[in-house]
Amino acid sequence: MAVKKEALSTKLILKLQKGTNENGQPVYAQRSIGNINPAVSDDDFSAIGEGIGSLQTLPVDSVNRQDQAALVNEG
After folding, report:
1. Which range of residues forms the domain containing residue 31?
2. Nearest 5 degrees, angle CA 7-CA 4-CA 45?
3. 38 closest CA partner among 67, 3, 64, 12
4. How far is C-alpha 25 from the geometric centre of its chain's CA atoms?
5. Does the predicted TM-score (pTM) go above 0.85?
């Protein structure tokens, strides 16, 4: 029996540096934006993340993509 991956949702996660701790290590915050079309290409997704990141007051450390999918038995 074959298994098919069915995309359910995609979330954009911005990792922002909000300062440093007492040891000088960076401290991060995250901003999540859900309900993004899973069909969006990685290039477009990155551009969206960079655009939204440019609106933030904190510096963006990284743009992350989190996909959720269901595995469905075909038969």
Report:
1. 2-74
2. 25
3. 67
4. 23
5. no
Rounded to whole angstroms, the Cα distance separating 24 from 59 reads 16
In three state form, how does the secondary structure of the chain look?
CEEEEEEEEEEEEEEEEEEECCCCCEEEEEEEEEEECCCCCHHHHHHHHHHHHCCCCCCEEEEEEEEEEEEEEEC
pLDDT digits (tens), the chain, 75 positions: 799 999 999 999 999 999 999 999 999 999 999 999 999 999 999 999 999 999 999 999 999 999 999 999 987
